[in-house]
Design goal:
Blueprint lengths: L4 H10 L3 H15 L2 H30 L4 H12 L6 H5 L7 H30 L9 H36 L1 H26 L10 H33 L1 H30 L26
Helix pairs in contact: 2-10, 3-6, 3-10, 4-7, 6-7, 6-10, 7-8, 8-9, 9-10
Amino acid sequence: MDFKAPLRRFDRFQQTKPALALPLGVFKKFGEDEGGGMVSLIAYRAFFSLFPLLLLMTTILGYVLAGNEELRKEVVSSTLSQFPIIGDQLKGGTLQGSGIALAVGIVGSLLAGLGVVLETEQTFNRCWGVPKSAERGFVGSRLRAIGLLLVLGGLAVVATAVSGLAAGGAHFLGGSGEVAGLIIATLLNLVVFGAVFRLLTTDAVETRALLPGVVVATVGWEILQIAGGWYIAHAVKNASAVYGTFALVIGLLAWIHLGATFVVLGAEVNVVRARKLWPRPLLGDPGAGTPGASKEAGAG
């Protein structure tokens, strides 16, 4: 009996349906590139960069909103809700401007964020098949990464703070204000992810080829904010009596890991679309049935 016959029939069927062929082509390339490992490395780096970034963000807000206590509380609550796993843990604390906290936040964000930028750039290079010989050297890559980190980190801080301000103002405007706040937050996230994909992807790739991945990453982030954060928060809450802080850390890592997954999937979407690596068979050799090799260097 041929047990693989149903799989072969489905394989032939999916290659005739773009709605199936494109996402399956993306997931196949994700597996060929060992995307799970790339996601884990980004998530590991991002985990250690999150806390100094939050310290920097909340310290700046402490300075800016020092004269308006009511708006300060609302904005802090809305800003920290962008980080659903640890947001509730931080809302109970005080928020005041501090020169020491600002210095620690800046230094910590630079050191930890540098690893995130370098790892994400390496991941994008791997997705696009950029050869090692075309990559920047040790010193050059790190100097460029520091500059990119200042730009991207600044955009992330501004986007999160403005989202918090929008959500805080929405509290006083009712339902229409909440919708406006969500739209503003989504547009800002599009700008941030657009900068991430453009600045960390090789210049050989055209900007328009990066737009689908930007949308995937932004939509994924919004899903995490609305659905993923709620689910993980409840899972952590139910397990906290047994695992306590350990459950909180696991939940935070899972949340960051999901965010990194959407970013890497966005990069793979760009490559698969630009190089027309779909439809492709799910059975047989990885490169069979595709117009080009998955690891081909340069832009499509």
